[in-house]
Amino acid sequence: MLSTRLIAPADNAYAYPLLVKRLLMSGSRYEKTREIVYRDQVRYSYATFIERVARLANVLTAAGVKAGDTVAVMDWDSHRYLECMFAIPMLGAVLHTINIRLSSEQILYTMNHAEDRFVLVNAEFAGLYQGIAAQLTTVEKTLLLTDTPEQSVELPNLVGEYESLLAAASPRYEFADFDENSVATTFYTTGTTGNPKGVYFTHRQLVLHTLSMATTMGSLDSIRLMGSDDVYMPITPMFHVHAWGVPYVATMLGVKQVYPGRYEPDMLCRLIREEKVTFSHCVPTILQMVLNAPTAQGHDFGGLKMIIGGSALNRSLYEVAKSRGIQLTAAYGMSETCPLISCGFLNEELRAGSEDERTTYRIKAGIPVPLVEAAIMDDHGNFHPADGESQGELVLRAPWLTQGYFREPEKGEELWQGGWMHTGDVATLDSMGFIDIRDRIKDVIKTGGEWLSSLELEDLISRHAAVREVAVVGVPDPQWGERPFALLVLRDGAELDAKALKEHLKPFVEQGLINKWAIPSQIAIVTEVPKTSVGKLDKKRIRGDIAQWQASGSAFLSTV
């Protein structure tokens, strides 16, 4: 063990805890008059925002919220949600961001499992909440959230309506210091098997994540995603990993923030245009939804920078967005990682290369951000070299990774086996530090005696001019073990069959990018690819649908 020198601090030295309240108080010193905007309905300054956070803290305290209580929120992306992201943790309570896109049974499970005591409910979800209220085991009181304060909605144990309560509360609150390792937030992963799992993050973790993300987005010259003069709007739900943590960064920097409420493509495009949004983030499927919106046609998005995460960024989408004026940057993370782990970066060597080479690296998962350690591990716990070829499971260390799963210690032990957090993703690391995600371990396809990446095949298929969206999964095959099956959404007026797709993929076989077994012998043309509640491809459901189609001899299957 190393021998280190410890020096006792002065008796009256202030032990500065890393708390969420530090992020709130930093932003207002830069731009007090900058705005927080909600759709086309609400706008106010940072000075008012700080007052509203204090008012909310007073309302919650009067309702009985104490340090250690769990307070849940059911809302669309809004200024109210942003206020909750600060006020609730700053009281020492735990913010539970409920995934309102889960089934009612799963929402009920998460609320009981998290032991929610107070719930803030948007009027749009009143019916859903009323349907599960009798089965909630720990909830004591509710608050109503509505865009129209005069709207009357009945909720069990209702304290009152949000805006009316805030208007009557004091605009000042003395937020106490407490242990920075206190849990600040919790939410539940959207796994495709079993019940959702609860992850949690402390104040210290959120502050360190915010500082690293701010450095990554604002200081790395080949990225430059968000600085203090940018205008920020999330298109990642605030219930999903704190909208990837960016609202904390934006608030710390005093950035103008725009919250779109329910994701309606035309409203998103309108807000981007009218509020002059310059930075956002989302998953690929949401970006495609925005680009295909009627109000987006003919619109120049020039100046808009976006992080794409949640699913692999393929070259086709990158090029389409670029042609519309949008600069995309791929990033990687997951619910358990708070989430930022890596982000696209081009060093001097890559910037001096061709445009094609720069694109190749921009769509990779990127280089680990400051304070993150990444490694590639085999099934026996041995590390692979960073040679860009050796594949294994991506494992991580960082100061903001969840330390386990709430009330499921055995799953937490599995997550952290060997002192590294196991991602479940197959990846490589190269000599420059780039992470290249090849697939989820459970989605890798074994065919013809070789491993095939569904993500790589999706990228190559997406380059066909007729393809708007693609998902590839492995399906059982008596001869080859598995064969890839492609689910395709075509562009308007386009046609494509399995034979034509085979011809499209042959050159990639000849180039050695994929083997001949990677060419799907069967495809399905659909109008929509199944997604999870956060917009990712739902490959478990896709496999089930394909099995049903094959069993029934569905007419829309195309076979070579």
Automatic annotation (TrEMBL):
<protein>
    <submittedName>
        <fullName>Fatty acid--CoA ligase</fullName>
    </submittedName>
</protein>
<dbReference type="InterPro" id="IPR045851">
    <property type="entry name" value="AMP-bd_C_sf"/>
</dbReference>
<dbReference type="Pfam" id="PF00501">
    <property type="entry name" value="AMP-binding"/>
</dbReference>
<feature type="domain" description="AMP-dependent synthetase/ligase">
    <location>
        <begin position="30"/>
        <end position="406"/>
    </location>
</feature>
<feature type="domain" description="AMP-binding enzyme C-terminal">
    <location>
        <begin position="456"/>
        <end position="536"/>
    </location>
</feature>
<dbReference type="GO" id="GO:0016874">
    <property type="term" value="F:ligase activity"/>
</dbReference>
<dbReference type="InterPro" id="IPR025110">
    <property type="entry name" value="AMP-bd_C"/>
</dbReference>
<dbReference type="Pfam" id="PF13193">
    <property type="entry name" value="AMP-binding_C"/>
</dbReference>
<keyword id="KW-0436">Ligase</keyword>
<dbReference type="InterPro" id="IPR042099">
    <property type="entry name" value="ANL_N_sf"/>
</dbReference>
<dbReference type="InterPro" id="IPR000873">
    <property type="entry name" value="AMP-dep_synth/lig_dom"/>
</dbReference>
<dbReference type="InterPro" id="IPR050237">
    <property type="entry name" value="ATP-dep_AMP-bd_enzyme"/>
</dbReference>
